Task: structure prediction
Amino acid sequence: MTLLSPAVDARPEAPEARGEVSRKVLDRLRGGGSGRLPLAADIARCAPYGEDLQLALHLCYELHHRGFAGVPDNLEWDPGLLGVRALMEHRFESALRHDCRHCPEVEEALAALLVEPVDGTGVSRFLMSSGELWHLREYVALRSVHQLREADPQLWVIPRLRGRAKAAMVAVEYDEYGSGRAERMHSRLYAELMADLGLDPSYGRHVDMAGAEVLAASNVMSLFGMHRRLRGALVGHFAVLETTSPPAASRIATAMRRAGAGPAAQRYFEEHVEADAVHEQLVRREVVGGLLEDEPDLAPDVAFGIAAACFLEDRIGGRVLDAWSRGESALRSPLPPPSGNEP
Result:
């Protein structure tokens, strides 16, 4: 088993600002409560999926996760930051609802996720067919923004469910956290995968390298998870993750073997091929089915969550494949050369 430094689990340094709004949020974090926060007009000028707003949201949400080195814990519930976060959430959610306004109904949307087109495209297919080791390292670095806290945002929905939906959600999450074994937690397996590829597995290490598309896909989980009114959207989003994971993980495991990545790099994706195939059935039948049996009026929210997950994942794929097709990096700044346990 790959041995990881205790620093892997330490609080991350705050990332660099990407505009006026994220700079003002950072100033508040670094000043321990002092400094002028963004105004509503500042946020209204931000592109809803843009670098500035998505980084500022990431900063606010991270206060409810691990936090940042040197940032006081009591800023988690700072009224000013919460007010700014609410304005940014409204901007983000409004854009998503507009762009996902023609989403299909739940059963149709879930059925579509099960179809694997013969001539399909996407990042995992690219990696399987022609991905090189540098592509795999970039992909893993980008995904680390969420995968190093895998399943954490979804936990917020559990107190808001009942009956079959709650029981099944707990069962799935129990697996995500290693079934009681810390060394089998999926976030831990992901850190070991990163170490095998010569990447720094420290929590939050690659946020500065990730574009707004990756931040938005991560932020939407916290948006849905932290609001009771969006519990249906969280369940729909989670259904997408669990349904699409096994085929994508199988392709990436193949790419890892072909590129000569180490055993931990392969193990993470092989684990998800088997585990998420079981999870997909539980989520579809019990979490989604149980929720809609108890609260059928949440069906439009579940459908919205499914559509939002697909929309934001497509935006990541578009950015990454566009860069790779030109032989360029998909990161905002280059990765350091491999070191440590690299293949």
About this structure: Residues 8 and 202 are 4 Å apart (CA to CA).
